[in-house]
Design a protein that fits this description.
The chain is an alpha/beta fold. The protein has 2 domains: 233 residues, no CATH class; 96 residues, D-Maltodextrin-Binding Protein, domain 2 (3-Layer(aba) Sandwich). The chain is elongated and about 80 Å long.
Length: 349
């Protein structure tokens, strides 16, 4: 049976070690804050080069609609991505979150479309759409504007940056450290104590999540003073999603380092896991319009569960019921990786 006292001793020792390393301690605050500040300034008024147009009602991945709604030359334009949307409700959610730039009703005779007034990209696509219809008749299309205050790009982007920083800190902060301890003989000395592998790994994970949440809270409130984030849901639930996500990522780092024999091998393994997660978990951009297999592959990563839950709370006002699937998956992966890590853990090289 695990001893809480032994876990507490290792937990305190790891925290003291981290806080005494002033360079690492300071960089954990500076890195995410500088990225958020930089991208907040860069994307405050800039647009993108590629545009996404949602079309409903569509039941398949490939969009099919009559030329009367959009000329064929515009349908094949390489700068435009047409995305199949099942219903108007789904489309309004996506356009409100800036996942698509324009929403077209492919079934109505008056060619209704929706645009987010807060989206610069939406205004550009709207002009292209109207210009394409003007030569065909005299009345063009029926415009419907939605509330543009639902989500700014910085509100969508912020959880991704914080999750990416948490991912790197969790994987490297526990995985790389455990391998370093094994290499310098620290784990060999701990093996002679009553400390079990499960107790040691649990203490490492709890120490790292304490530091992660401390850093996250400071960066969140500091950035909020500058950008005034629009939190649609509960801030406590938002923090809770990052807590569960941090535990899941830490447990993955422990699993990768459970039997690591060298710092070089572990470094390669951590990079092999972290980089696909960074690009496939919607940290930088939405996977809306990507191939179905890519979207399904992203569900294998804990970072995807974290970001989907966090953005549902922050941008959609989601409740615990709305994110129960993502929370359940994060709890499951945490317990799975922790138990597997304790099972295969090696104290010596």
């Amino acid at each position: 049976m695990a001893s809480l006292q032994r876990i507490w001793v290792i937990f305190r020792a790891r925290n003291k070690e981290f806080f005494r390393d002033r360079a690492a301690f300071g960089w954990n605050f500076a890195f995410p804050f500088l990225i958020i500040l930089g991208f907040g300034i860069i994307f405050s008024g800039e647009t993108f080069q590629r545009y996404k147009i949602g079309v409903f009602p569509q039941s398949a991945d490939r969009v099919v609609f009559e030329e009367t709604h959009l000329p064929s030359h515009l349908q094949t334009d390489p700068a435009l991505d047409f995305i199949a949307i099942a219903s108007v409700e789904e489309g309004l959610i996506k356009i409100g979150q800036h996942k698509i730039d324009l929403l077209i009703d492919g079934a109505s005779a008056d060619r209704r479309y929706w645009v987010n007034d807060a989206s610069p990209k939406g205004r550009i696509v709207e002009q292209l759409y109207q210009a394409a219809l003007i030569p065909r008749d005299n009345h063009g299309a029926s415009r419907i504007a939605i509330d543009g205050t639902r989500a700014r790009y910085i509100d969508w982007f912020f959880p991704g940056i914080m999750a990416m920083n948490m991912m790197f800190s969790a994987l490297w902060g526990v995985g790389y450290v455990v391998v370093r301890y094994r290499k310098n003989g620290a784990l060999k000395r701990l093996k002679a104590t009553p400390l079990t592998a499960f107790e040691y790994l649990s203490a490492q994970m709890l120490s790292r999540i304490f530091l992660l949440m401390f850093t996250f809270s400071v960066v969140w409130f500091g950035s909020d003073l500058i950008f005034d984030f629009r939190m649609q849901g509960s801030l406590l639930l938002f923090l809770f999603t990052f807590f569960l996500g941090g535990l899941s990522l830490c447990s993955m780092g422990l699993f990768l380092a459970a039997r690591g024999i060298s710092e070089e091998f572990t470094s390669g393994a951590l990079n092999f896991i972290s980089w696909p997660m960074m690009f496939l978990s919607e940290v930088w951009f939405s996977l809306e319009g990507a191939p179905q297999w890519v979207q399904q592959l992203s569900w294998l990563f804990p970072l995807t569960h974290l970001l989907k839950a966090a953005r549902k709370v922050m941008n959609e006002g989601g409740t615990l019921i709305d994110i129960q699937l993502e929370c359940g998956l994060m709890i499951f992966t945490t317990m799975l990786f922790l138990l597997l890590s304790a099972r295969i853990f090696s104290w010596v090289e």
